[in-house]
């Protein structure tokens, strides 16, 4: 029997008995033509967009998207120039990629064998690139982009706790654009972000931190070796940033080394007066100086400019109720009174900052706190064994500790004031010195010692001392406790939650 495929076709007009026609496919199936394509014939120009409409569309894109000028000098770039820039950048980018791909496997093997491979704990892998046109000062990788993004969205709120209240972000407004043109500064910013990650999670961030810290230091050292004149502003900022990171991680001796070098470089440029037109760079140097000096209560490197607090023009010169009672008993000197008035002005002004229109107020608060810290660090009473002078030293240290709590600008859970806390605790243990203090002031000082930003191994002692004090003073409710603290120096935004936590721990 023949099993070849076949097809039988009957005519529609034939009778039921008529036979059909059989088509056999002995070789292959019949090709059926595809349906006819619909539309205009090939080559037709009808319906195409005219040149005018294309130009109009391009004009809309030109209005929507603009070039980002990362240079220090702003220039106007017209559309033809933009087109030329895109063309040349893409040609150069394509050429570089072809050149990289053209490297032979043998050359790569020889180069890898002859090069010492760093430890995986120090150098992290490079999975890709974020800056394909090589516009930045270093080759940016995806993890660097993530760290910078974390810096400008989250970390800056910790580093600029005062400016945060008025919505001013110096990272996006000043530091990041400056770092895009300076590789050492960009490495230091990435390293700072990595240090925050490292503190939050000890198993992450360390390789990134070490890599970028070493890169920044190497670039600065090379600049110092090549430079015959004064160093740049960016180099000063890098050294100040590295010093702050060292102090934040607890390396106070290394902080001292970096600050000595920074002081020499600033003096070679004519002192801080040469930076009067650059307040943010001045402020960075001051903060690097104070972060270590306040923690160790040592004399600052750049304190000569803040010898007189009264020159800042405080808004009020009278003491709060708690300090007035203390003054009657202890007879506070002019230095402590001026410091208290400046801090009162700072806390009152901080309470009124609630919008972006208050950037001038935030700058004034920063000045009051900075000048007060320098003034308090310029004098000390602790070398005396006289109880009255020891009581004055307790006041000085308590005011310094308050400045740390009101602008806590270190990672959560980290304390850099262990030496300051230890000195204050030792003096508060001295009964002869505490007889010169009011019970309310002693309780306020103990509260500062127990705050999370300053807490250390002495937390148990602080809570026990607070519990004994409120028992002697018959304080039964949390509202009484908060009102008593407010008679001295108290910032609701910084201290309100801590009051609740400490009260619950003491009364539980």
Automatic annotation (TrEMBL):
Pfam families: Fungal_trans_2 (PF11951)
Domain of life: Eukaryota
Residue stretches of biased makeup (Basic residues): 34-48
Stretch list, region Disordered: 33-59
UniProt-listed PANTHER family: TRANSCRIPTION FACTOR (ACR-2), PUTATIVE-RELATED-RELATED, TRANSCRIPTION FACTOR DOMAIN-CONTAINING PROTEIN
Name of this chain's protein: Fungal-specific transcription factor domain-containing protein
Lineage: Eukaryota, Fungi, Dikarya, Ascomycota, Pezizomycotina
């Amino acid at each position: 029997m023949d099993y070849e495929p076949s097809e039988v076709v009957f005519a529609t007009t034939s009778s039921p008995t008529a036979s059909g026609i059989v088509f056999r496919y002995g070789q292959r199936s019949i090709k059926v033509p595809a349906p006819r394509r619909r539309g205009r014939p090939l080559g037709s120009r009808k319906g195409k967009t005219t040149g005018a409409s294309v130009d109009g569309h391009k004009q809309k894109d030109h209005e929507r998207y603009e070039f980002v000028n990362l240079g220090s000098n702003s220039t106007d770039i017209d559309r033809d120039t933009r087109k030329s820039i895109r063309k040349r950048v893409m040609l150069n980018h394509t050429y570089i990629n072809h050149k990289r791909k053209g490297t032979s496997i043998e050359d790569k093997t020889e180069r890898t064998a002859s090069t010492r491979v760093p430890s995986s704990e120090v150098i992290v892998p490079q999975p890709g690139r974020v800056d394909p046109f090589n516009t930045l000062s270093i080759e940016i990788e995806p993890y660097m982009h993530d760290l910078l993004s974390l810096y400008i969205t989250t970390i800056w709120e910790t580093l600029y706790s005062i400016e945060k209240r008025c919505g001013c972000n110096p990272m996006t407004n000043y530091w990041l654009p400056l770092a895009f043109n300076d590789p050492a500064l960009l490495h230091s910013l990435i390293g700072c972000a990595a240090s925050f990650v490292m503190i939050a999670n000890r198993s992450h961030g360390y390789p990134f931190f070490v890599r970028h810290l070493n890169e920044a230091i190497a670039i600065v050292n090379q600049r110092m070796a090549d430079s015959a004149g004064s160093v740049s502003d960016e180099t000063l900022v890098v050294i100040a940033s590295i010093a702050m990171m060292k102090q934040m991680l607890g390396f106070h001796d290394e902080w001292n080394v970096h600050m000595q070098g920074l002081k020499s470089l600033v003096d070679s440029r004519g002192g801080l007066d040469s930076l009067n037109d650059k307040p943010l760079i001045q402020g960075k140097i001051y903060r690097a100086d104070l972060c270590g000096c306040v923690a160790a209560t040592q004399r600052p490197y750049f304190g000569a400019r803040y010898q007189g607090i009264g020159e800042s023009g405080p808004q009020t010169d009278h003491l709060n109720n708690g300090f007035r009672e203390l003054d009657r008993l202890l007879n506070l000197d002019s230095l402590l009174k001026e410091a208290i008035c400046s801090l009162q002005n700072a806390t009152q002004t901080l309470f009124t900052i609630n919008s972006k229109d208050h950037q001038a107020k935030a700058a004034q608060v920063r000045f009051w706190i900075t000048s007060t810290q320098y003034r308090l660090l310029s004098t000390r009473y602790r070398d005396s064994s006289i109880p009255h002078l020891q009581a004055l030293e307790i006041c000085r240290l308590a005011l310094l500790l308050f400045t740390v709590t009101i602008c806590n600008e270190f990672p959560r859970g980290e304390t850099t004031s262990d030496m300051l806390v230890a000195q204050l605790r030792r003096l508060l243990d001295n009964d002869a010195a505490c007889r010169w203090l009011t019970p309310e002031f002693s309780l306020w000082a103990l509260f500062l010692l127990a705050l999370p930003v300053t807490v250390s191994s002495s937390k148990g002692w602080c809570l026990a001392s607070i519990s004994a004090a409120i028992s002697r003073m018959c304080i039964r409710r949390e509202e009484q406790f908060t009102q008593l603290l407010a008679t001295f120096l108290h910032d609701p935004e910084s201290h309100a939650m801590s009051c609740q936590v400490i009260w619950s721990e003491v009364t539980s």
